Amino acid sequence: MIKKTLIYLATFALMPISSHAQFGNMTEAQMQQMMQQGLKMQKCFGQIDSSAMERLSERGQSIDAEITALCRAGNRDQAQSKAMAFALEMANDPAIQAMKKCGEGMADMLPKIVTESEDYGNSETSSRHVCDNR
């Protein structure tokens, strides 16, 4: 969710001003409020330990390589288990929790491009396997 939020913010910031007014039927005041909240979020992210973020990035790349290798070797169950364990590890990581907290203020302000139910709750995505896109 945080990654999607950051991608959305980057996309929003790069759009021409004229398209901001059309996007999601936002008023000028709503756009200003969202930009203010974005600046607060940026400041908050700046306070997160960069070495922890680097560690998480390296860990993620390592796990991704392991999962890809398991998938290619046909070890789908083992790959899925590793992916689920890593997701739990990330959910409990203090840096990830800090990132989530930084993004909380924006969540209510952003238009719902993809709802959480579309991401996690429907049968199509909940039945996907980590190896299906590798």
From TrEMBL:
Q: Which UniProt keywords apply?
A: Signal
Q: Which domain of life is it from?
A: Bacteria
Signal peptide residues are 1-21
Q: Tell me the protein's name.
A: Secreted protein
Q: What organism is recorded for this protein?
A: Methylotuvimicrobium alcaliphilum (strain DSM 19304 / NCIMB 14124 / VKM B-2133 / 20Z)
User: Source organism lineage?
Assistant: Bacteria, Pseudomonadati, Pseudomonadota, Gammaproteobacteria, Methylococcales
